[in-house]
Description:
The structure is a single chain. The chain is an all-alpha fold. The chain has a domain at 30-39 and 47-78. The protein is built from three helices and no strands. The protein has helices spanning 4-40, 46-57, 61-76. The longest helix has 37 residues, at 4-40. The radius of gyration is 17 Å and the shape is elongated. The N and C termini lie far apart (60 Å).
Amino acid sequence: MFTIQGLMMKSEAIMEQIRINAIEHTFEQFKEAARRYYTQGYDNGESVALIKELERLGANMEVVFDTDLDIRDEVCGM
Length: 78
């Protein structure tokens, strides 16, 4: 038997999983864009747009910025 509360809980769980998947996908795109930016020196604003999208999705921004610094250090040889 389905209840409205049960359906709401299932839909909330599905929406959260969709959000998590979107964060993971966008984070992978961000890592590629950041690596391109630090190797080529130009990315047409893609990195900033992906950071804003991650922020909108509710990603942990501390992890995003730490990853950005790690990529920079890796590419620049620090």
